[in-house]
Design brief:
The chain is of the alpha+beta class. It is 51% helix and 15% strand.
């Protein structure tokens, strides 16, 4: 067993850390307050190759491994989860699925620009009545021969207004159930496609989350991904990899809160000494560090499984379940260690606590992860 990172991985990690500290940290509180999308920062991440990390260079990507992607997600998320979720969606849910299952025409038209960060994408599965129960798609795609007509609503779509291309799941044949679902590439400018109001969220407030409406949107048949009825399988395969990105995000949020807490505990004095010298605080830091290291190994193991071509359904579900819980526990303790200062925005930890909660919800709730895990371990 080898727990060391390669020289290339260390260089990528350091580049992400430097970018996060120098370009994400300034203004992160203001962006959160104003719910402002990090447009300039996302452009820079595209320049650095972070938007298509695992895509083959033939299609404009960086051609890197999943472990490197997890390292970047962790470093970005220590500072700004609103920025890192853009990276996660574009890499895991859009670029990966398109490269794995799209045809050559689709790759040439969409993947290159997505991987280079010229445009960003969105993944549209959730609906008002289809969250965890992804089989209950009410959005319909009526087959008209050389095109489909889309009608319906999607909810909670990350990059909802900032994306240029959307991967949309829709029901083509209701009688076939989940086997009648298809996945489509929808351009933002297609007539009948409307972007709903921006959600006013607890956390990741810089990320633009919108509902989307499809009113007789005409989608060419060549924009369908895979064979007829492949949509649900496509979504599940894509989400399995997406869990690794969100697990890495949760890990980064936890690690960021821990690093701020340790620094604060070494500077803040109470009862005549730095509070790190009080066992009550030192033990909190010990628990935080231990839990973060455990989460880190789960996340890296899931990424490694994906890189090795192993089945990563179980390892990615475990990584997301545990890392998201550690993110919540750690950020709550970080606020406690900071005391009154933890309750104000200038010290960052209250924002990290708000951001942590979504990691237990999106790309499969913690309850869904437990279903995936329990089915995997009881199958044999």
């Amino acid at each position: 067993m080898d727990f060391s990172l390669s020289e290339e991985q260390i260089m990528i990690q350091e580049a992400a850390r430097e970018f996060a500290q120098n370009e994400l940290l300034p203004g992160v509180i203001e962006r959160d307050e104003a719910q402002r999308f990090p447009t300039e920062q996302v452009k820079r991440m595209g320049d650095l190759g972070f938007m298509g990390m695992m895509v083959d260079p033939e299609y404009g990507g960086s051609g890197l491994d999943t472990v490197s992607y997890a390292l970047v997600m962790e470093e970005l998320s220590k500072v700004d989860a609103s920025a890192s979720v853009v990276v996660s969606v574009n890499n895991s849910l859009v670029c990966w699925g398109l490269e794995a299952y799209g045809n050559e025409q689709q790759k040439q038209k969409y993947l290159k620009r997505l991987a280079m960060g010229e445009i960003i994408g969105a993944f549209c599965l959730s609906e008002p009545e289809a969250g965890s129960d992804a089989t209950s798609q009410k959005t319909t795609a009526l087959d008209k021969g050389d095109h489909y007509i889309l009608n319906g609503t999607k909810n909670w779509i990350t990059n909802g207004n900032s994306a240029s291309v959307y991967i949309v799941m829709a029901q083509t044949d209701k009688d076939k159930g989940h086997k009648g679902i298809n996945a489509f590439l929808v351009d933002k400018e297609m007539p009948g496609f409307e972007i709903g109001p921006k959600e006013n969220k607890l956390g990741i407030r810089g990320s633009d989350t919108h509902s989307l409406n499809f009113n007789d949107v005409k989608v060419p048949k060549e924009n369908r991904i895979g064979e007829d009825g492949f949509g649900f399988k496509f979504a599940m395969k894509t989400l399995a990899g997406g869990r690794i990105g969100i697990a890495a995000q949760a890990l980064g949020i936890a690690a960021g809160a821990y690093e701020l807490s340790k620094k604060y505990a070494k500077e803040r004095k109470a009862f005549g000494t730095e509070i790190v010298n009080h066992q009550a605080i030192a033990f909190k830091l010990a628990d935080m560090h231990t839990q973060i290291e455990a989460a880190r190994f789960l996340v890296y193991k899931a990424a490694w499984d994906k890189d090795q071509g192993n089945n990563y359904d179980l390892s990615s579900a475990m990584a997301k379940l545990y890392a998201s819980q550690v993110a919540m526990d750690t950020t709550i303790e970080a606020v406690q260690i900071h005391g009154g200062n933890g309750f104000v925005k200038d010290y960052h930890v209250e924002r990290l606590m708000r951001d942590a909660k979504i990691t237990q919800i999106y790309e499969g709730t913690s309850e869904i992860q437990k279903i995936v895990i329990s089915r995997s371990i009881t199958r044999d």
